[in-house]
Amino acid sequence: MSPAVPALRVTDPAAFGRVAVLMGGTSAEREVSLDSGNGVLAALRSRGVDATAVDGIPALVDAIRAGRVDRVFNILHGNRGGGEDGVVQGLLEALGVPYTGPGVLGSALTMDKIRTKQVWIAEGLPTPRFARVPAGGDLAAAIATVGLPAFVKPSCEGSSVGAARVVAESDVAHAVEVARAYGGEMLVEEMVVGDELTVAVLGDVALPSIRIVPAGEWYDYNAKYLADDTQYLCPGLEDAEERAIGELALAAFNAAGCSGWGRVDLMRERASGRLLLLEINTAPGMTSHSLVPKAAAQLGIDYAELCWRVLEQTVEVASA
Fold first, then answer.
1. What pLDDT is attached to residue 221?
2. So what family is this one in (predicted)?
């Protein structure tokens, strides 16, 4: 059974005022953000919204100071100049400008995969076993603790940036080099053998899950944004399992202090059928290969309507 999607709360594009579509920035995910942002910009304009592209946080500050922005559609990705780490959210809160996506707490927490896992564990929510490696720490020892196979990835990056697979002892040296290149805290996570799934959250609704079947061994940057041979099965599960994954995704999203919209990534362990939480994306990709538009389309919500539904959450509608 498909989730119930509420009626649109806003029907007049003028209600949004002047919308800055915040994209690009200076994070490692700049190019993906520009691709997403241009899609969102075209979609909003197609529905009559007065939307303008703004590249990065300094340009956004200038536009706000000049009185050209009433609200922000944030499609920056990543941290350090990206818009998913709570920094731009805090800025907009201080300036009184409404924006899409989770607030300061949810954004800052979920940018950090390790701290997000710690919150989930405290809430009794399932996640693969892992080890934290501080900058300059003994990555090889952490891998030995977690066991093989394992993933090594920066705690505060997205889009599979800087991720390494360690399936044999011979892979450890490469993982160490990857960690050294990034220089920050690293997450060593048990590699779950099974199905990779994702659930988009829109308001209080979990959209149909998507099961991702890459042509290669794993769902890396190329499979996410470049390849055309990755399969996306939606819904990814059936009946009781589909309801269970939606409920778990909403519980994980709420536990992390998130609201608005986002995407929860999970694994289903092949041997046991257990669902395990991986991470949350608070400004998910909106490119032609992206997952949230695919899930929304399953409910008859096209790309332009999806962008509208995300944006309308920034508008306070007076109760009757």
1. 53
2. Belongs to the D-alanine--D-alanine ligase family.
Asked about 29 being catalytic, the answer comes back as yes
Q: CA 169 to CA 179: how far, in whole Å?
A: 16
Q: Which residues contact 19 (CB under 8 A, 6 or more apart)?
A: 44, 49, 50, 51, 52, 69, 70, 71, 72, 73, 311
The kind and range of the H/E element at 113 are helix 113-122
Which phi and psi angles does 291 have, rounded to 5°? -90, -35
**79 and 141 inside one domain:** no
Which of 67, 69, 21 has the alpha carbon at shortest distance from 42?
21
Per the annotation, the verdict on 265 as an active-site residue is: yes
pLDDT for res 201: 98
161/243 same-domain check = no
Active-site option among 86, 99, 265, 290: 265
Per-residue DSSP letter, 77 = -
Domain encompassing residue 137:
130-190
pLDDT digits (tens, 9 = 90+) for 198-252: 999 999 999 999 999 987 665 555 555 555 778 999 999 999 999 999 999 999 9
